[in-house]
Specification:
Blueprint (H helix, E strand, L loop, with lengths): L8 H12 L4 H8 L3 H4 L7 H24 L3 H20 L8 H19 L4 E7 L2 E8 L8 E7 L6 H7 L1 H7 L3 E5 L5 H5 L10 H12 L4 E11 L2 H11 L5 E5 L5 H9 L10 H9 L4 H8 L15 E6 L8 H9 L6 E6 L15 H15 L19
Parallel strand pairs: 3-4, 3-5, 5-6, 6-7, 7-8
Antiparallel strand pairs: 1-2, 2-4
Helix pairs in contact: 2-4, 4-5, 5-6, 10-11
């Protein structure tokens, strides 16, 4: 894991996430160098200074994008806005729930991201799915080279990620090349659902997952019999839970298992393991809609996959980083072992040989992206090679 700030896991995690979303090392250094001293004071301190430094870089890229746009260089403008959005989102994610300016920063990020996608003409369509008097927003990526209805993998967030993060890390692009469409979703407790509509997390993930399946089944370009669900981090709890109780899912997958997240919270109270964001206990109560620690911990008793996974009767993939410092590896084995009725279950532990050994492969997503995309394509009727490839074209040089 790239450790720009020695000893500050939370800030380093943010930088690694930004790099996986396309941040440039020179820009990272310019943003982070002024923060070295304050970073030594702990992950909660200095987050306002973090915001100012990263927003300044975002604003500079926005200005450069305007210059490109004035010259008709719209693709270049779009890519700069996309990177600006990554920096603004990273800064927003680091702030306390009620930090001054956080809502305005999120709105600026949204505008940058959406305008960047439009100018760069990316394969990314915003969708809105009605839910509880509001809607769940998603980013839809079409399958490439598919005639007729395509399979779909719905991808859901963890505790503190957003649909834009899922999209930028790149699984939708990997799947599209394999003939699989994607929907990156802000489910309750994350992204727009939490920030704009006050939709908080719920342990019975099938309640919203079923509504998403309802909506995606109506699309003319999606095969309703080939819809899968994949979750990252805390999505490693939501996805198995939803697949267990929603039989229309054709498969399930997790990028970072999370078999008993309630138990993990008790460990974190005892300072065991790393936390993903600053102001952690304030953040989790915001996500789950509780007004006290006692109420939060009471709700966490339900956030476990114990007694649930025997309901899963479709193929399921469990992946985990061997050196995950947030969620212990034992939980991946617990989820895998619980899938007693899955006809096709796979456990993949990412090691030093492949890379991606940290939480949800935040240190290096390259191998995990290939592995997950291939596994899904093989089971949803996608492809792992182009149809016109010839055997003589596929030789690999010797190591």
């Amino acid at each position: 894991m790239f450790q720009y700030f020695p000893g500050n896991y939370v800030w380093n995690l943010a930088i690694n996430l930004a790099m996986e979303m396309g941040a440039k090392i020179g820009e990272l250094d310019e943003m982070c160098r002024p923060l070295m001293e304050v970073s030594q004071q702990g992950d909660d301190e200095g987050t306002r200074l973090f915001l100012q430094s990263w927003e300044r870089m975002g604003d500079n890229l926005i200005a450069l994008a305007h210059e490109d746009e004035a010259q008709g260089r719209l693709i270049s403008a779009g890519t700069k806005l996309g990177r600006a959005a990554t920096y603004l989102l990273t800064a927003e994610r680091m702030q306390a729930r009620d930090a001054p300016g956080r809502a305005a920063l999120y709105a600026k990020f949204q505008d940058c991201f959406q305008r960047g996608v439009q100018l760069a003409h990316e394969n990314c369509e915003r969708v809105e799915i009605p839910y509880e008097g509001a809607h769940l927003a998603g980013l839809y990526t079409r399958a490439e080279g598919v005639t007729g209805k395509a399979p779909l993998l719905i991808q859901i967030n963890g505790l503190d990620s957003t649909k834009e993060m899922l999209y930028r890390v790149g699984l939708p692009q990997h799947l599209a090349r394999r003939g699989i469409a994607s929907l990156c979703l802000d489910q309750p407790g994350t992204g727009e659902a939490l920030r704009l509509h006050g939709l908080t997390a719920r342990y019975d993930a099938e309640a919203w997952a079923s509504r998403v399946v309802d909506a995606m089944e109506t699309r003319a370009d999606i095969d309703p019999q080939r819809i899968g669900l994949q979750g990252v981090s805390l999505g490693g709890y939501y996805a198995p839970r939803a697949v267990a109780f929603e039989p229309r899912f054709a498969l399930g997958a997790v990028w970072g298992a999370n078999h008993n997240w309630g138990e993990v919270q008790l460990a974190r109270l005892n300072r065991e393991g790393e936390r993903p964001v600053p102001h952690y206990w304030e953040h989790v109560q915001w996500v789950w809609g509780t007004s006290s620690m006692d109420a939060f911990l009471e709700r966490m008793k339900y956030v476990t996959l114990d007694g649930v996974l025997d309901r899963v009767r479709v193929p399921f993939l469990v992946t985990h980083g061997e050196q995950d410092r947030q969620i212990p590896l034992k939980y991946a084995h617990q989820t895998y072992d619980g899938l007693v009725n899955s006809p096709d279950k796979t456990l993949k532990i990412f090691t030093d040989r492949e890379g991606g050994v940290q939480h949800s492969s935040v240190d290096n997503s390259a191998y995990a992206l290939d592995y997950i995309a291939d596994w899904v394509a093989e089971r949803l009727g996608g492809r792992t090679r182009w149809p016109d490839a010839h055997p003589e074209d596929t030789g690999i040089p010797s190591a």
